[in-house]
Amino acid sequence: MPDLFAAEESIGEPAINISIFSAFVLVTLIITFQASRTNKTAADYYAAGRNISGTQNGLAIAGDYLSAASFLGIAGAIAVFGYDGFLYSIGFLVAWLVALLLVAELMRNTARFTMADVLAFRMRQRPVRTAAAISTLAVSLFYLLAQMAGAGGLVTLLLGVTGEAAQAVVVVIVGALMIFYVLVGGMRGTTYVQIIKASLLIVGAFVMTAWVLGKYGFNLSALIGGAQDLAVDGRDVAAPGAQYGATGTSKLDFVSLGLALVLGTAGLPHVLMRFYTVPTAKDARRSVVWAIWLIGIFYLFSLVIGYGAGALVGPERILGAPGAVNAAAPLLAFELGGTVLLGVIAGVAFATILAVVAGLTITASASFAHDVYANVIKKGQVPPNGEVRVARITAVVIGAISIGLGILALQAGLNIAFLVALAFAVAASANLPTILYTLFWKRFTTQGALWSIYGGLIICIGLIIFSPVVSGAPIVEATGKSPSLFQPPIDFHWFPLNNPGLVSIPLSFFLGWLGTVLSKERPDELKVAELEVRSLTGIGAEKAIRH
Amino acid sequence: MSDPNERRLLTPDEYLQAQASPEFVELKRRFRRFAFPMTFAFLAWYLLYVLLSTYAHDFMSTQVFGNVNIGLLLGLAQFLTTFVITHLYVAHANKNTDPIADEMRHRLESHEFARRDGTGTSEGATRA
Questions:
Q1: Contact across the interface for B15 and A289, Cβ inside 8 Å
Q2: DSSP secondary-structure letter at A279?
Q3: CB B108 within 8 A of CB B18
Q4: Nearest-CA distance from A544 to chain B in Å?
Q5: A248 Cα to chain B: minimum distance (Å)
Q6: Which of A398, A59, A317 is nearest to A195 (CA)?
Q7: Model pLDDT, residue A3
Q8: DSSP bridge pairs for B68
Q9: Does A488 sit behind a cis peptide bond, omega within 30 degrees of 0 on the bond before it?
Q10: Measured distance CA(A254)–CA(A202) in Å, rounded
Q11: Do the beta carbons of residue B67 and residue A224 sit within 8 Å?
Q12: How many Å apart are CA B124 and CA A338, to the nearest integer?
């Protein structure tokens, strides 16, 4: 679709956008170098020595979680579809209660570096670790794909970069920076990048929110009225159903999405890994509380920003811009504050993508090095430095893969919030049932864990492959393209929903139960006792490193 | 689980003893008594909201004041309940579970849950 990416459609002053972004990169690089001085052991590299404070970690979690999907995708969905975009943010927020009440503290008390540390705790190590590592890599790659797709769209819009080759160069730069942060800074460097980014993002969103509300006399009703005036085809933007209300299938899709969002967060490996960077379970709790407040307030901002973009820019201009729905927030920034505010918001959006992909890369590389290499291949007989060396190599490989995927993703015009929702569906299907069973069901066995992880993963990804996401979605008149990955006449879809959560999550819970009751193996009672006592009392939990 | 000396502060037998102790049973009960019903409640409330948004379009579109309708208010109520539940959980943990957990952890660290008759050993245990 090169015709949509015409040069005159880029907005603002690319030089300003680039210089603000460069300033962010420079500052974070310096901090990353500083952070690298204390990177000595595996605990430093994977978990920032476990001496990030609860408050800092809350900010870093917000930085990790408020991805480009949250900032650009949700605001865009609200701008174009109104109310239905709001549901994303509610699902993303409520999901944190699962993490707070059931997962964060218990995982902090029992794991060292990865999700698999807990899942394999009382099971046969090698098969469960392998399964958990595979699903960690799958979720992280899905999420990376979404972020890279976001980077592509943003670049077109903000830097005035046109042509696929030039866009590919930008994705390579983003990828190279991400690899650098992870290699040099490890988890501590990544954490600082996320903290800075979260602060910038929340301040930026606050400024835009106050500005929009100021224009409407701090009257939400007037703002919605403004958005309503410009709505496409007289669509009711304040009422549910604009995006999903058309047919019985799309309604079911909405429910499926809602389920995946609320159950996905507590199964996201890069979110879980953040809990290991604090000294104690109490700090893990404190960090989730901070995260909930920051994320909740940010989503309230994005509601205003979304309706503001709908009212002040209008859905037609948004959909006509390169990047489509993802362009809503940058276009609004330009409308409000001209090139400077746009430059700031663009810089923040880039920072967002960088910080999130760095977090994903360190999680995926830690899982490969710690779970697959050190514990499965080498059976634990590996010096800690060897493990970190493998983690660094893996980070480069994963960085390269995500650069490749990102370049491919440039051509797909999917809403990135939607792509992230698929990552949530995979996390909720493959990871969450096993996490909950491991922590709360004594009888749960290795076979149950394997059935649930592999079953959830295969069903979820299988259903996505045969869904309209990949092939067979009808052509949209505005773009003349099908939103599917493959364009017509290729059509092999038979699963009607875009989001598989409604089917795959309950099936994965069921498989975990079935695998357990059908297994001949008895749970290891000593290990069950150890896990239970450790998870609730914090005895034997990994300590912070003093430098 | 590499390096057992570093990882295992206590013997398996101590963990069994601790798990069976009345204070641990109470700790577990207090933790679950809050977390499980609350999880059920907020998930039910969230799913109700999703289902209403999907299948009760007219009800959710009912305007309350100006352009603000029931759907938007219920959505904002989801934010409110999330903040409230967060606060309730922290208060519950500070008041009801942390004191037991902290006390048990200290006693475990000094191996008070080892069997006194000598059948359970504490070899391999290291300082916390």
A1: no
A2: S
A3: yes
A4: 12
A5: 9
A6: A59
A7: 35
A8: B65
A9: no
A10: 28
A11: yes
A12: 67
CA B75 to chain centre: 25
For residue A173, what are the contacts with CB-CB under 8 A and spacing of at least 6? none
pLDDT per residue as tens digits for the range A306-336 = 999 989 988 888 887 766 777 888 889 989 9
Assigned token pair, A94: 């409520």
Measured CA to CA in angstroms, residue B62 lies from A90, A269, B49, B53, B67 at distances of 20, 40, 15, 12, 9
Mapping DSSP to helix (H, G, I), strand (E, B) and coil, where does residue A113 land?
coil
Alpha carbon A49 to chain centroid distance?
24
Interchain CB distance below 8 Å, B75 and A292? no
Q: Are A95 and A263 in contact (CB under 8 A)?
A: yes
Of B47, B49, B68, the CB nearest to A224: B68
pLDDT per residue as tens digits for the range B1-60: 444 444 447 888 999 999 999 999 999 999 999 999 999 999 999 999 999 988 888 898
* Among A91, A94, A537, beta carbon nearest to B108: A537
Asked if A318 and A296 count as a contact pair (C-beta separation under 8 A), the reply is no
Please tell me the distance from the alpha carbon of residue A508 to that of residue A500, in angstroms, as a whole number. 12
Residue of A nearest to B89 (CA): A101
- Using DSSP's 3-state secondary structure scheme, residue A329 falls into helix
Contact between chains at B53 and A224 (C-beta distance less than 8 A): no
Tokens 């990552």, residue?
Answer: A423
